[in-house]
Amino acid sequence: MKNFKSLIAISFAVLSLGAFAADKVYETTAEAKGYNEEGIPIVLTVKAIKKDGKVVVTDIVAKHQETDKVGGAAIEQLIEEVKTKQNYNKLDSVAGATVTSKAIVEAVANALEKMGVDPIKYAYKPDISKTDNLNAKLDLKKLPKKKDIKETVIITDAKGRKVEIGLPISTYAISTMDVIDYIIPLKGKEAFNMLVGSGQDGGHGLNKYAKLYTPVVGNYMEHTAQISEHASPFDLEMLLAVKPDVLIVNSAMAAHKYALEIEDQLAEAGIKIILIDVPGKDSEKSVQQAMRILGDVFQEKEKANEVINFIDKQYSIMNSKNLKTRKDKPTVYYEKSGYSEVFGPTATSKSGWGIIINIAGGKNIADELLADKPVSKGGGNTIDPEYVLKNNPDFIILSGVNDGWLDSSKEKKKCQFDIVNRNGWKDLKAIKNRNLYEFAHSTSRSIYGFYPALKMATIFYPKEFKGVNPEAVLDEFFDKFMLLDSSISTWMYNLEDYDKAEMNKNKK
Questions:
Q1: CA distance 359 to 181
Q2: Is 253 strand, coil or helix?
Q3: Are residues 498 and 379 in the same domain?
Q4: Does 210 share its domain with 291?
Q5: Is the residue at 1 inside a domain?
Q6: pLDDT tens per residue across span 72-98
Q7: Class of residue 221 by CB neighbours under 10 A (exposed 0-12, middle 13-18, buried 19+)
Q8: What is d(CA 402, CA 337) in angstroms, rounded to the nearest whole number?
Q9: How far apart are CA 104 and CA 10, in angstroms?
Q10: How many angstroms from the chain centroid is the CA of residue 502?
């Protein structure tokens, strides 16, 4: 066991024990589990006084074995906050050191309890609102054992970065749980056995995946840490604790910026960053590119090629119809919304769902209006409702209203298509002809991204795609490459199906 690295003594300048000589003085020691390699706990010696019925912490000394730059800095900051706020409910978790932050709060509370004080009465309340409850099961002793490195290779990632990694890799972490869908076809159940960390997405992906896959692969959450909140910086302390061989990050998301900010610290610990790019600017090729990269990382080139060939086939079917250059394209309006009073953002043919609409041969009405806007803005701008009414689109595509992504319940949740209640919208061609469709939003950046493109193509051009069954293709993909079947999600729902469901409901 190493000697303690740090001894932090922070005293309250505004309070002096001598000034309250007549008041009861408390002093006790408490500890909480930190995240250092040796498993040495953080030990706090807390001094306090009780004056006028209120406990005031006057001095804290911390002994710990946490990293100086991450955990150590967090301890200093949090002790200073105790000094300033005297309210343990208002302690802010330090970015990059959430585990240490929680440990300090718990240790202070434990010290108060040893003093015979009810910490609840003195505003102690650990902030667990931002912590995935599954994270409580994390046990560093159950991390996968490291394999011997047999060779060193250079991987070219999606951004053209040359990354040197040792093979075989033993463990990995991912920016969000949906990235594992790219690894399951390569490693099967082993994909979960090797996983030691994942970031959280806006749809609580950690919980969703655990609910679905734990019965199939076992309790992998025992060795899988939450390494970031949704669209937030990575928890450097947690990453250093679980030490993945590689951190695989989707560069199409904000996470890649946060990953590169800590690349030097990760490199010092032997953790390499690999960037994939989905959906990317060329969504017809981005998934295949990701599979090639991951095939090299996981030494599964043959399996990667099987997935690539399957996906290439679907895009070849669409490209054979020359959809992008057709003169008779149907007009399409896309919106990430679907509520009558909330007009969500749209996307041009240069980004997100707009790219998919373009692949499927739709004429996006947002293109002309937002043509001069940068992609970052053009993909997130709202359109004046009057513009939609004026253009009177043939089809309306929605996503993000009621995302059935990974909804394994038997009774699928359906979008209520509240959008039809907007002023004047019932007179739109798309609504009159029941050409209103909602897709699971996350599909656009998933390994299944070929499905919404193929589905839209069959919707826009039913004669040209007679005999093509996108749902059957999706079923085949799951059967070949995934651990579950395609019933895990509601992939698409349309207004006509909703009408039928409502009629049946009224009959009952």
A1: 23
A2: coil
A3: yes
A4: yes
A5: no
A6: 777 788 878 776 776 655 566 665 566
A7: buried
A8: 9
A9: 14
A10: 34
